[in-house]
Amino acid sequence: MQIHYEIKKIQESSNTPDLSKLSPALFWDTDLKKINWLKNKRAVIERVSTYGTEIEKQTILKFYGKEEFEKYSVRPANAYRISYLQTEENK
User: Fold this and answer.
1) Nearest 5°: phi and psi at 77?
2) Alpha-carbon distance 69 to 58, whole Å?
């Protein structure tokens, strides 16, 4: 319980993820330094989960936490189909 409190406290004190690990091309329509990372977390997570590299996804996951990342993460359009096919193969 204490560790979760400490992680939350660290996240709250740092209002910005590690920008050196995020490509400006990912946020081509805005200045990375002007993004309100807390207010716009849904848009950020959706964009990074859809278009980001694995490093960018891990950076955002670390910043927002697993629960928030999974909550707003966009699954690929064919994720259900792939999951279904894998299930069918196991029968």
Assistant:
1) -60, -30
2) 10
